């Protein structure tokens, strides 16, 4: 694993960043306009001292003006998912659909006993682990050679493979991430702790004001589910069959339309209902026209007034396709306790290819066998998460407002989207149409909802058929 701060690290760059943050801290209380405050904030040491004092008081919004970009080399999807799950982080990830991962390498943990100490048989365990991981990568290559597309062969990739990311975040998010990785439950996973410690080392020289608060944070690895687990023993994991709408805003179509009237005419809910009734008496199709305007206007804040909550079965391979839509409160199971490795999916192109399916199932069952063997040796579950395969299924829960739903469906209902996330998006759109038909009309690929395709020469061609009709 190699972590590097891109730019913002020379003496001049550091002093300029500190000046910007200090000026933000001074602006609300010092006389003069913003440029005069910037000019007056020209002493590095006094600026740094003031920033430390302000953030110690808990006023951390000023460090959101310090944005840092990192290059992350040879990190596993465990790190990747942790980063992407941090919703205010920016990231660009190497695509498993477009890039061959057969020779990228993989993470090798130091195996620990249940007491947290290095396992007495660690070296032999690592040898066996390396042989098994290489076997999985070789089978991934065989699947690709057997005319299985990379986007489906990757379902066999173990969650140990090396990935590369460019990650950006402001200093406030960086502080939170370092705390999670070095002081919280995530620090039980060695790779995540190493990642946090490498970020902390960079912070010492390049983001020095953060040490004022980071050094005071106490370690907290408490289990937030302890109360629940003491009352009800953990049941067997059950992956649901398909995406399910579990709750939603009642009369969502009307709520959206009435909110439009309320804020535009600055009237009460009762008055807005009266206005809508008056409009409907003059045009029985007014609601449809209202919603069509709202669905296509530049600012669609009315759509944010209603919410829909879903439980979604999804594979690890495709989880990032959902996680990266950051403005929704996605609940993903923690990496440990270990999920049931028997809950996996077989991609359709593999299902349809007898030879490929035999190879795929043999490798999947072999992985379960090796994982169980390692479990029996009394190894910490935190070190066994690298046996997860991309095919591993899990249930996630999330809520989206209608505006976010519209955006997700625009991207994921497209024929070019990966097949599993496309099926999920289509299920979402279909179920919303049942309870909010007017909003539902705006959910789908842009070729269907807007008669427009932005894919250019890479278009699937559906837009041409729609325009011909």
Stretches where pLDDT is under 50 for at least 5 consecutive residues are none
Quaternary organisation of the protein chains: single chain
Contiguous helical run count = 21
Structural class: alpha+beta
Quote the beta fraction: 5-15%
For the biggest sheet, the summary is: 4 strands, antiparallel
Q: How would the global form be characterised?
A: globular
Instruction: List the helices and strands in order.
Output: EHHHEHEHHEHHHHEHHHEHHHEHHHHH
Percent helix: 40-55%
- Record the strand order, biggest sheet: 1-2-4-3
- Taking Cα atoms only, what radius of gyration do you get, to the nearest Å? 26 Å
Ends: how far apart? 54 Å
Count the strands? 7
* Average pLDDT over all residues: 93
Please outline the helices and strands.
Elements: E1 2-5, H1 11-27, H2 34-40, H3 44-56, E2 67-75, H4 77-84, E3 90-93, H5 122-145, H6 150-153, E4 163-170, H7 171-183, H8 190-206, H9 211-214, H10 226-231, E5 244-248, H11 252-265, H12 269-282, H13 286-296, E6 307-315, H14 316-323, H15 348-351, H16 354-376, E7 393-401, H17 402-412, H18 419-435, H19 437-440, H20 446-449, H21 462-468
Antiparallel strand pairs: 1-2, 2-4, 3-4, 5-6, 6-7
Characterise this structure.
The chain has 469 residues and is an alpha+beta fold. The protein has a domain at 250-304. Helix content is 49%, strand content 10%. The chain has 21 helices and seven strands. The chain has helices spanning 11-27, 34-40, 44-56, 77-84, 122-145, 150-153, 171-183, 190-206, 211-214, 226-231, 252-265, 269-282, 286-296, 316-323, 348-351, 354-376, 402-412, 419-435, 437-440, 446-449, 462-468, and strands spanning 2-5, 67-75, 90-93, 163-170, 244-248, 307-315, 393-401. The strands form two sheets. It has a four-stranded antiparallel sheet. Strands 5-6-7 form a three-stranded antiparallel sheet. Helix 5 (122-145) packs antiparallel against helix 16 (354-376), helix 7 (171-183) packs across helix 8 (190-206) and helix 11 (252-265) packs across helix 13. The protein is globular, with a radius of gyration of 26 Å. The relative contact order is 0.12. The model has no long low-confidence stretch (mean pLDDT 93).
């Amino acid at each position: 694993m190699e972590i590097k701060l891109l730019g913002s690290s020379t003496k001049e760059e550091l002093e300029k960043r500190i000046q910007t943050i200090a000026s933000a801290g001074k602006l609300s209380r010092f006389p003069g306009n913003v440029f005069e405050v910037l000019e007056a904030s020209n002493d590095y040491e006094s600026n740094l001292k003031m920033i430390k004092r302000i953030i110690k008081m808990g006023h951390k919004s000023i460090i959101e003006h310090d944005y840092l970009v990192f290059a992350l080399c040879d990190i596993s999807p465990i790190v990747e998912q942790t980063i992407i799950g941090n919703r205010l982080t920016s990231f660009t990830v190497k695509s498993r659909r477009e890039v061959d991962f057969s020779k990228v390498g993989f993470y090798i943990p130091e195996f620990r006993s249940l007491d947290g100490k290095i396992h007495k048989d660690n070296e032999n365990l690592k040898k066996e682990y390396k042989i098994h991981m290489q076997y999985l990568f070789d089978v991934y290559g065989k699947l690709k050679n057997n005319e299985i597309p990379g986007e489906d062969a990757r379902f066999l990739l173990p969650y140990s493979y090396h990935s590369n990311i460019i990650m950006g975040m402001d200093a406030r998010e960086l502080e939170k991430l370092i705390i999670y990785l070095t002081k919280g439950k995530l620090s039980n996973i060695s790779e995540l702790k190493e990642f946090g410690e490498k970020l902390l080392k960079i912070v010492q020289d390049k983001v020095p004001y953060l040490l004022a608060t980071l050094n005071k944070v106490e370690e907290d690895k408490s289990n937030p589910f302890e109360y629940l687990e003491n009352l009800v023993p953990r049941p067997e994991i059950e992956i649901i069959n398909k995406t399910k709408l579990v709750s939603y805003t009642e009369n969502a179509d009307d709520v959206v339309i009435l909110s439009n009237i309320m804020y535009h005419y600055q009237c009460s809910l009762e008055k807005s209902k009266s206005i809508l009734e008056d409009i409907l008496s003059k045009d029985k199709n007014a609601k449809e026209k209202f919603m069509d305007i709202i669905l296509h206007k530049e600012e669609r804040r009315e759509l944010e007034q209603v919410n829909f909550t879903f439980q979604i079965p999804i594979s690890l391979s495709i989880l990032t396709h959902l996680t990266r839509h950051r403005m929704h409160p996605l609940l993903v199971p923690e990496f440990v306790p270990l999920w049931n490795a028997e809950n996996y999916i077989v991609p359709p192109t593999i299902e349809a290819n007898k030879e490929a399916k035999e190879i795929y199932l043999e490798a999947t069952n072999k992985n379960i066998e090796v994982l169980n063997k390692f479990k029996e040796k009394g190894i910490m579950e935190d070190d066994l998460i690298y046996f997860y395969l991309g095919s591993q299924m899990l249930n996630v829960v999330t809520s989206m407002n209608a505006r976010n739903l519209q955006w997700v469906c625009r991207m994921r209902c497209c024929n070019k989207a990966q097949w599993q996330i496309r099926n999920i998006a289509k299920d979402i759109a279909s179920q919303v149409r049942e309870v909010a038909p007017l909003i539902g009309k705006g959910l789908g690929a842009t070729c269907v909802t807007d008669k427009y395709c932005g894919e250019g020469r890479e278009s699937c061609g559906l837009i041409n058929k729609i325009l011909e009709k």
